[in-house]
Amino acid sequence: MPEGHTVHRVARQLALDLVGRPLAVSSPQGRFAAGAARLDGRTMTGATAVGKQLFCTFDTADVLRVHLGLYGAWDLYGDVSPLGEGERVRGSLGAPRVRPGSVMDAQPSTRRLRLGEDESEHAAADDAWPPPPLGQVRVRLDSGSVVADLRGPSACEVLTADEAAAVRARLGPDPQDVADLDEAGEVVVERVTRRQVAVGQLLMDQAVVAGIGNIYRAELLFRARLDPWTPGRRVPAEVVRGIWRDWAVLLADGIRDGVMLTREDLDDAGRLAARHDPTLRHWVYGRGGLPCRVCGTPVVVEEMATRKLYRCPVCQV
DNA sequence: TATTTATGTGCAC
DNA sequence: TGCACCTAAATAC
After folding, report:
1. Cα–Cα distance between A247 and A252 in angstroms, integer?
2. What ranges do the domains of chain A cover?
3. Is there contact between A138 and strand C, defined as CB under 7 Å from any strand atom?
4. Which CATH superfamily hosts domain A4-167?
5. Nearest alpha-carbon partner for A187 in A12, A70, A179
6. What is the pLDDT of residues A4-18, one digit of tens each?
7. Model pTM?
8. What EC number(s) does the entry state (predicted)?
9. CB-contacted nucleotides of strand B (7 Å)
10. Under DSSP, is residue A74 helix (H, G, I), strand (E, B) or coil?
């Protein structure tokens, strides 16, 4: 259940561990058999995230496009590189890492890293290598030392470079994918302030700004103290700019930490506690009926375009 | 054991 | 607007 930060983490992980190596590509579940056959044996040349879309390019110029949808996730096994400074929240500790180059040893231990939902890391069920697919695995990418299994994606398809570019062109700016943050922010300002649609809906529209999902939407609007029902054209440009800059900060934090921690009021101890306790991570998301952390008024839950919207009716105006 | 829910999107009407 | 799709964990019974 990913928003943009998760997909960026996946892209970085695949870039670290799979790019530059010929891959054995298969579809244990069978639903991606044709696509897997097309990619099998090819070398991945790049892995990029734009919003919630993942693009893996191959030496054939084919592009594997993956969207995790609501419940997609990647499981990685084997000699998986640590991402960033190692501050990621982890579940039970994995088995000792296999050293580079030793994976083909007689008894390689494996660890399993899940990217996509609440991230977790733990020892694999057994030491078999390659690990048996767990659940419905749409595609398996196997470098020999790292296995990446994709489960439950809403999209997994092979595109030409042109087709992939067309998908990208339909997306709004992603703070991690723009050359100039301020310039990109003006695009978002335009796309929000010209519309009559509620700003809460516009922030979820991937053509307006890419990568924001239901949690970041709720939290960005609370942090801006803005009522999600405000029509886009009634939101001052400077407020949209502020939300865009804030999105850039939250996204970078999420990529670094692997956790959506959207409260800026916590000290180090509070942040540590929140990393381990999901109920402490947000201002309003998932807190329907609970008191607003600022004013104590019960947080309102309502539907906006079929998604749950959380807001404080007093703080957000 | 069955039902509900979820950090999402796309298409038919 | 409503539904279909996809999977697994949490919750209800």
Report:
1. 8
2. 4-167, 173-311
3. yes
4. MutM-like, N-terminal (3.20.190.10)
5. A179
6. 999 999 999 999 999
7. 0.90
8. 4.2.99.18
9. 6-10
10. strand
